[in-house]
Design a protein that fits this description.
By secondary structure, this protein is mostly helical. The chain contains two helices and no strands. Helix 1 runs antiparallel to helix 2. The longest helix has 36 residues. The chain is rod-shaped, with a radius of gyration of 16 Å.
Length: 66
């Protein structure tokens, strides 16, 4: 389940980064650029949280099997 969520979040992250690059290229409004920066930061945090969950699950499986 977490791997699927990471794929979804990563896809959103790429979309936001492409949009951000386009906006920077066109020198669009600063407010839009700041909003996208914040959304990208939030997506990266969510991805890291999901990865932490996966790492925790894998660590528990290794400890349990020992």
């Amino acid at each position: 389940m977490s791997e699927q969520r990471i794929r979804e979040l990563s896809s959103q992250l790429v979309e936001k980064q492409l949009e951000q690059a386009h906006n920077h290229k066109n020198k669009s409004e600063v407010i839009q650029a700041v909003r996208l920066d914040q959304e990208i930061i939030n997506l990266k945090r969510e991805i890291n949280n999901e990865l932490d969950v996966i790492r925790g699950i894998k660590k528990m499986k290794v400890e349990y099997s020992e």
